[in-house]
Amino acid sequence: MIYYGNGYYGLKEASIGYFNKEPKDLTLAEASLLAGIPNAPSAYSPNKNLKLAHKRQSIVLKQMVKYKYISEDQKQEIEKTFQE
Known about the structure:
5 helices, mainly alpha
């Protein structure tokens, strides 16, 4: 079972814990944030350090563009929300 920080194990627990949603209902922005957490859950937990979680999310998004899962425009749109 993968640890996502804040006592959440597995994608479903993390999805509900961080966003109060089932995994199937996550937005691309939410899913990409969760995708970065397991690398270092205590560091990248959005409840502990949102700025660092967004930096890690940016890395995830860059890889998604690189492998053509999303467009550069989608990546930039999500990254705009980091400053809000």
